[in-house]
């Protein structure tokens, strides 16, 4: 109740319509129904939040937070291509100052390599040439089968799934990079991800590739059966020699087919990974709160955390970049000892501390009322002294003062630190050549402090029954009798804060 009255008094004196609701709070969090305030970089915060832009990440300066409070981290414009995490890096205990002593990885190379094979010999020219790869008619002779094997090999060599999908692969490689930053960065693939996915899936051409794969598989299987029939039905030495050539050619076909099947499997794995990416990004996964681990410790604690990102396509890209496509489980096993794929976005440093409640400031007191002095003054007429009277002099002055401020409450105003203090000060009054004291309330914003004080000091008054203007006679009149006494004058003061510890400097 007393604090509320005190705050109301300060509000009325300084012309503040309404002090922020945070002023009436104690502890860390905002009042019920209010969201966390944005962390200030110039004040000791309660619980607050810091927001990082994914497209334009900027590492914030050290955030100073009261013991027992916390910092919540959020990321704007997250990319669907990435997972974001807040990960601990280090913690350190810092001895508080004596308050009065100090006034992303990219995919390189090709995703797969087509194994070229030597051109096979067609053997003796057959009298009747048939398409043995699609029709078994008249395919019981080696020359016809060999010609068919050559045609299939030529078709296999001319079909390169990776070359056909090159535009899509280039787009995937781009997506493996972090956003370039800047105002125009939030396009494909990082933000306009839905359209990017549709484009990439179309350029990979998996459906057409699988159709060709099925045709090759049927051709090779048919030729394999024809070779087997030829070997079974022809056992003379020339036929045995021809059968060896057919077997060698068939092995070459199988190798070329396996290469194409492996490439298509890699593209299919990439397509699955691309389709699995959501259309919209999410924020930090897991805990996004930096908390004070030892709130009762009087020492300060500095914690360093990193907002890291992991590209969702990277595990699949690494898997398909191998010469032979591995299963997901095999890749997981072989990659157990790999270094973390997380890449740092920004580093956040938080110092939990118990801010000092005492501060010093230096400035000037400006009393609202004058100081008095009295003396004998001559009254003359036509150059002749006709009387001496008691004269009063009023002097307005400023008093250089050093203030000691005790913090009552502090809050954040436009992300800058404000505070309310009980103030006591001592200064030298040049008008009275004496020491003066001030006490009252001070409001500070950043380093400027404005005070309303009671100025306690010495002033002069007439004694011995003298009064102002009283005649003292024309002779050797004595000066009027004066005495000093303690007064209390309303005073304003302006000063510059000198924090004695903590972050509010």
Q: How is this fold's topology laid out?
A:
Layout: H1 2-14, E1 44-45, E2 48-53, E3 63-66, E4 70-76, E5 82-94, H2 142-158, H3 161-164, H4 166-175, H5 193-204, H6 206-233, H7 237-276, E6 284-285, E7 289-291, E8 300-311, H8 314-321, H9 328-334, E9 343-353, E10 358-367, E11 371-381, E12 384-395, E13 399-413, E14 416-429, E15 434-445, E16 448-462, E17 482-499
Parallel strand pairs: 1-3, 2-4, 3-9, 5-6
Antiparallel strand pairs: 4-7, 5-8, 8-9, 10-13, 10-17, 11-12, 13-14, 14-15, 15-16, 16-17
Helix pairs in contact: 2-6, 2-7, 4-5, 5-7, 6-7, 7-8
Give the helices and strands as they follow along the chain. HEEEEEHHHHHHEEEHHEEEEEEEEE
Number of strands: 17
Count the DSSP helices.
9
Described by strand count, sense and barrel closure, the largest sheet is: 6 strands, mixed
- Termini separation comes to 30 Å
Which percent range describes the beta-strand content?
25-35%
Give the overall average pLDDT.
Answer: 81
Structural class based on helices, strands and sheet pairing: alpha+beta
Helix coverage percent: 25-40%
Radius of gyration: 45 Å
Task: Outline the low-pLDDT stretches.
Answer: 1-26, 99-128
Q: Strand order, biggest sheet?
A: 1-3-9-8-5-6
The shape is rod-shaped
Question: Can you describe this structure in just a few lines?
Answer:
The chain is α+β, with helices and mostly antiparallel strands and 505 residues long. Among the domains are: 2-104 and 284-311 and 340-353, no CATH class; 358-499, no CATH class.
